[in-house]
């Protein structure tokens, strides 16, 4: 009997380890031969732990599984099991996706290089090694943009590093996924770590780098363990090391663990941290592409950008660019969270409207109450009201509504949300996480909290002060932390002014 129980951190948090243990114990009790795979998560977090059992070559799903319900999996065909879901690939959540970056996540044993290759792994690296001069053009033509949030064209970044002349170049993977409500980097690393290694190796061949680093946040212990094991296995198999896949080219990777600062997800801060310095933002220029790690040309890319590269190299730029809208080509792994019925990871081509994402895919709120707001793009992203839910999910389209796609975190709030409190949270978050280098962010965020507290106490005369402060932070901050904190604040103020004037109105009425 072949059974999959996710080893993904979200599934484990929901009891997957106890389920796996129950599966082992039940098979032993019955004397049944068992192959138990701890796969990644399929992304349907509300069904975790989602157990899969192979029946006639088809993976049948059961969930959310409990240890008590495990014996039933061993009886009959399991179709009449109370937690039976049917073939996993045919579930509506799975069938409607376009899984390119996440094609293997949840499918394979994350640490089996053989399974990785059997499912198309390493095809991209082989193609890259066969025509190294084509890589940058291929990535540029695919339209791939930085999936960390800024959306800068990946091919142009790589071309800058490739053109730079230096005795040493580096590939740095930014896996310091700090945005609240995002988990795609973690899920990818825990579910398919070899695809990240392959993407980094392709980047190395493209720009002439021989060393790479994966900067992983300390809050992801499972991802750290899986990534370190995968790097070791890739080295043993000759995918990394002095002679990558027999090409004569050298490339190796080190996993480095951060220490819990949100700002270390900002690339220059990350580089400082990687160099053993305090994680403080550096002024740009110089850009890391020219002067990055140890002052050398460095590709700094998010996990998802690098993990998408193998698919593009294996299938061609045109196949990737065929998906999406406008300048947002390809697919994006949406992370749907907050007060939502069906939360999880959903990879789909750019272009769905927020309404399709929140109501269609997410199924509305978990509380059953009306949706009041959706925050798009992490804690520094704007809040969208239902009136703007026809906005298509694309970089320019979301920016056109004063928002940002960011790392594609989508957090849902019902009508009990207090948008003034959410605005205060943004300023407080910025004050806590500020690196302190520039004044608009260091001082502005603290003053922002105070100003919002005065508004909350009924002093609506402070609203223009808050608006002015947001303007100063947005245009005067050195990096996106201080520069983007005004997005949630101003969107809350613009779309829900009543939440900011409620106290004053109440006092006037009394
Ligand atoms: P940015 O716009 O300054 O830079 C984007 C990237 O393009 C950088 O890597 C930069 O070095 C590179 N670049 C710019 N010009 C270049 C050129 N001529 N040649 C080569 N490379 C060039 O944006 P930044 O500050 O790096 O990122 C901000 C974004 O980070 C925000 O949009 C936010 O959504 C996102 N973010 C993501 C988080 C996460 O958890 N993934 C957390 C916090 C913020
Ligand atoms: Fe540091 Fe904030 Fe300035 Fe960024 S905006 S450099 S986090 S003080």
Automatic annotation (TrEMBL):
InterPro entries: NADH-UbQ_OxRdtase_51kDa_CS, Nuo51_FMN-bd, Nuo51_FMN-bd_sf, Nuop51_4Fe4S-bd, Nuop51_4Fe4S-bd_sf
Keywords: 4Fe-4S, Iron, Iron-sulfur, Metal-binding
An example Gene Ontology molecular-function term: FMN binding
PROSITE patterns from the UniProt entry: COMPLEX1_51K_1, COMPLEX1_51K_2
Domain NADH-ubiquinone oxidoreductase 51kDa subunit iron-sulphur binding: 420-465
Source domain of life: Bacteria
Classification via Pfam families: Complex1_51K, NADH_4Fe-4S
Cofactor dependency: FMN; [4Fe-4S] cluster
PANTHER family according to UniProt: NADH-QUINONE OXIDOREDUCTASE SUBUNIT F
Family, similarity comment: Belongs to the complex I 51 kDa subunit family.
Protein name: Formate dehydrogenase beta subunit
């Amino acid at each position: 009997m072949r059974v999959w129980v996710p080893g993904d951190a979200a599934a484990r948090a929901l009891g997957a380890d106890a389920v796996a243990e129950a599966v082992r114990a039940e098979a032993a009790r019955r004397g049944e031969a068992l192959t138990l795979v701890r796969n990644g998560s399929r992304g349907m977090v509300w069904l975790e732990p989602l157990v899969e059992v192979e029946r006639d070559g088809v993976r049948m799903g059961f969930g959310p599984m409990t240890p008590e319900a495990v014996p039933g999996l061993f009886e009959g065909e399991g179709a009449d099991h109370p937690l039976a879901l049917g073939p996993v690939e045919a579930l509506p959540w799975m069938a409607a996706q376009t899984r390119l970056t996440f094609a293997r996540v949840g499918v394979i044993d994350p640490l089996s290089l053989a399974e990785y290759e059997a499912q198309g792994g390493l095809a991209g690296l082989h193609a890259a090694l066969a025509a190294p001069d084509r890589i940058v053009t291929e990535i540029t033509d695919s339209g791939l943009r930085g999936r960390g949030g800024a959306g800068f064209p990946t091919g142009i970044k790589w071309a800058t590093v490739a053109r730079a002349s230096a005795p040493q170049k580096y590939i740095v993977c930014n896996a310091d996924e700090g945005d609240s409500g995002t988990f795609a980097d973690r899920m990818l690393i825990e579910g398919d770590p070899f695809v990240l290694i392959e993407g980094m190796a392709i980047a190395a061949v493209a720009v002439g780098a021989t060393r790479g680093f994966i900067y992983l946040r300390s809050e992801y212990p499972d991802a750290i363990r899986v990534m370190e094991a995968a790097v070791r296995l890739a080295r043993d198999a000759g995918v990394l090391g002095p002679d990558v896949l027999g090409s004569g080219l050298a490339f190796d990777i080190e996993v480095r663990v951060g220490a819990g600062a949100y700002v270390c997800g900002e690339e220059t801060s990350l580089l400082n941290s990687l160099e053993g310095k305090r994680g403080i933002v550096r002024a740009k220029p110089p850009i890391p592409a020219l002067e990055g790690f140890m002052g050398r040309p460095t590709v700094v890319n998010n996990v998802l950008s690098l993990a998408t590269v193998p698919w593009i190299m294996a299938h061609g730029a045109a196949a990737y660019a065929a998906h999406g809208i406008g300048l947002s080509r390809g697919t994006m792994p949406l992370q749907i969270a907050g007060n939502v019925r069906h939360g999880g990871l959903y990879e789909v081509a750019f272009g769905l409207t927020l309404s399709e994402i929140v109501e269609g895919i997410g199924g509305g709120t978990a509380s059953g109450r009306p949706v009041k707001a959706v925050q798009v793009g992490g804690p520094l992203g704007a809040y969208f009201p239902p009136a703007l839910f026809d906005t298509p999910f694309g970089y320019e389209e979301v920016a056109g509504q004063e928002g940002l796609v960011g790392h594609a975190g989508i957090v849902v709030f019902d009508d009990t949300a207090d948008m003034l409190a959410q605005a205060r949270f943004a300023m407080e978050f910025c004050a806590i996480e500020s690196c302190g280098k520039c004044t608009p962010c260091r001082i502005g965020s603290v003053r922002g909290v105070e100003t919002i507290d005065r508004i909350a106490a009924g002093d609506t005369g402070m609203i223009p002060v808050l608006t002015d402060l947001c303007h100063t932070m947005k245009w005067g901050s050195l990096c996106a932390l201080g520069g983007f904190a005004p997005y949630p604040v101003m969107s809350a103020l613009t779309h829900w002014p009543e939440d900011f004037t409620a106290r004053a109105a109440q006092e006037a009425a009394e």
